[in-house]
Amino acid sequence: MASDLKDIFWKRLDNVQAGLLSADSERPIPMAPQADRDDKAIWFIAAKGSAADRAAKSGGEARFDVADPKAGIYAVIEGKLDEGSGEKLDEVWNAFAGAWFENGKDDPSATLVKMTPHTAEVWATENSLAFFYEVAKANLTSDTASGGDHGRLTF
């Protein structure tokens, strides 16, 4: 199940629009993840001088919390932050990031941060219709509802 859940994790993380990233025990801030299964990484476009940027420069630890019912995933992801390259910034840049940086990807305050996950606790939920079916079934039987797959992953 763990390998199936890991596959589900990467597929659904790719559909997450935002989560909360906290670096080096500082307050969490909303960030848009860019999942990269091949690189086993989660990329974030951050502002230079931010907690994420400072942690990336020092190889610090971070936590990314996701609660996205539309993507069908809830997760607590822990890992290490590192600096990203300009080439990768070009690859992951999008209109959402452009809304935060006046000069787009060439803005001097834009930087790329790479999170390499160590562990994650993941809840992969069913779609709304399946969830309501599970709730109705649980109320009509002695069973409890199934919320989908849950497990702890190591990367």
The CATH homology group name: Electron Transport, Fmn-binding Protein, Chain A
Q: What shape does the CA trace take?
A: elongated
Output mean pLDDT: 89
Integer count of domains: 1
Proportion of beta-strand residues: 35-45%
Quickly give the CATH architecture.
Roll
SSE series = HEEEEHEEHHEHE
Query: What is the percent of helical residues?
Result: 25-40%
> What's the story with the biggest beta sheet?
8 strands, antiparallel
The top-level CATH class is Mainly Beta
Q: Which segments are poorly predicted (pLDDT under 50) over 5 or more consecutive residues?
A: none
Number of helices: 5
For this structure, the CATH topology is Pnp Oxidase, Chain A
Q: What would you call the structural class? A: alpha+beta
What does this structure look like?
The protein is built from five helices and eight strands. It has 155 residues and is α+β, with helices and mostly antiparallel strands. It has a single domain, classed as Electron Transport, Fmn-binding Protein, Chain A (Pnp Oxidase, Chain A), CATH 2.30.110.10. The two termini are 14 Å apart. The model has no long low-confidence stretch (mean pLDDT 89).
